[in-house]
Amino acid sequence: MTNTTQPAPRLILLPEVTRITTNKKTKVYELIKLGELRPVKLGRKTAFLESEVFEWVNQRLASRRA
């Protein structure tokens, strides 16, 4: 039997999101409210899929080039 499970997606916490996006915490919360970033609640902590955060940054970069 072949195990075809994929590795779990990497979750990052708010301080790393602010570092990657160069946005302050309040701006990240605003992006959540606008639906641009989607958090994952882990008890009292708020985490984000690292891939989605980088995708958000890459979309900003792509729109700048257009």
Would you write up a description of this structure?
- The protein is 50% helix and 18% strand.
- The mean pLDDT is 92.
- It is of the alpha+beta class and 66 residues long.
- Strand 2 (39-42) and strand 3 form a beta hairpin.
- The protein has 3 helices and 3 strands, in the order βααββα.
- The chain has one domain (11-65).
Keywords summarizing the entry:
alpha+beta; 3 strands; about 70 residues
Residue-averaged pLDDT, rounded?
92
The overall number of domains is 1
Rg (C-alpha, Å): 14 Å
Biggest β-sheet: count, sense, barrel? 3 strands, antiparallel
Report how far the terminal alpha carbons are from each other.
48 Å
Q: Strand tally, please?
A: 3
User: Spatial order of the strands in the main sheet?
Assistant: 1-3-2
Low-confidence stretches: none
Give the overall shape, derived from the CA principal axes: globular
